[in-house]
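#structure-requests
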Amino acid sequence: MKNISVIGSGTMGNGIAHTFAQFGHQVNLVDINKEALEKAINTISKNLDRQITKGTITEVQKVETLKNITVFTDMQSGVASADLIVEAATENLDLKLKIFKDLDAFVKPQTILASNTSSISITKIASVTNRGDKVIGMHFMNPVPVMKLVEVIRGYATSDETTATVMALSKQLEKAPVEVNDYPGFVANRILMPMINEAIYTLYENVAGVEEIDTVMKLGMAHPMGPLQLADFIGLDVCLAILRVLHDGFGNPKYAPCPLLVNMVTAGNKGIKSGEGFYNYANGVKEAKVAGKFS
């Protein structure tokens, strides 16, 4: 597992590329958008600088990590030599199915295809390939270089060998892999998203304000971040997409997204990525204030 390709250079993609490269893997970072790739390398460089400041890596290690990353705008070229591919594209089923169908045709027969999806069925993704035994979920947490957990999701056809390989590789990255089965939301988001949704309902029904809800959960439940702040951090569009997967997958009304969440995403208020969600980030994340709509 020396050669790794990462599809998608957004927040998760560049974090995954950073982590593999830091541990000596040759990483091809693939994105159709050249500007997005340039931004990703700049982000990785800044995050490596933070690690240097904290004393977790050296300047030499930063240089070596960046040397291990090559960028590609053509997917076929970027995955040709890969032993493992981690797809980290937008949480959109049709897009992921297209990517995996193409990857199956482009790569070596023994290449493992992993998805960083946070909720979409690995079994469904594998169904468009001819290598269901080699398709698996590898759900990293954000920020990837810092967070230890990796949810390793077995699809219906995923082999024991593929699972063991990915579990061992995750440990080599100094992560803590947890094996789970392929059901909507897996473990993390099946538990987390209903909590976030209930927090949004609590705001929607005027039980309490944004800061009040987050404060109760931080001080009363020892959460490091309140659920509304966390939703902004994840992206409200991502939260909505995951809730819809849960609602469709289980057919249970308890997973129905709050109308306030739907309206916010429709209006373009997606959290940190758009500059405003439940909080306003005009002055940066550290100076965030409750959004005017809710203050």
